[in-house]
Amino acid sequence: MAELNIKRLIECREKNGITKMEAAKRMQLSQPAYLRYESGERTPSIQTINVIANVLHTSVEYLTNQTDDPSPVSYTIYKASDPELFELISQCKDKERNIIKRILAYATMLETKP
Questions:
Q1: What residue stretches are annotated with the HTH cro/C1-type domain (predicted)?
Q2: Phi/psi of residue 71, each to 5°?
Q3: Residue ranges per structural domain of the chain
Q4: Which of 48, 82, 92, 94 could connect to 44 by a Cys-Cys bridge, CB 3.0–4.6 Å?
Q5: What are the percentages of helix, strand and coil residues in the chain, rounded to 5?
C-alpha cells in the first residue's frame, strides 16, 4: 500500500484554509488521531486516506505520491450535508450526455455572472 505524503497532507489542509482541529472534525476523526497522521506518527488506512482526500478536495493518488496533479478524481456527495447537489446529481445521472453538457454550460454561465 502507498504511504501518505505528510508534506502534501499539510499543504492541502493549508490550501483549504482549515486548522488541524477543523480538518479532524470534517474528517470525523478525533483531533489526536488526525495529529498523528499529520506528524507521521501513524499511517492511516486507505479508507481514511480516501476520506482525507475528499475533505481536502484532492485525490488519494496525490496524497500517496502516485501523481503530481492535486486535482480530485472523484467526489462523494452526502444527501444529509448537501441535499441540493445530491438531488441535482440524482436528476442528471441517467440523462443523455448532451443534456448533461447543456446543464454544465448553464452552470458555468451562472458562475461567471456577477
A1: 9-63
A2: -65, 140
A3: 6-63, 83-112
A4: 48
A5: 60, 0, 40
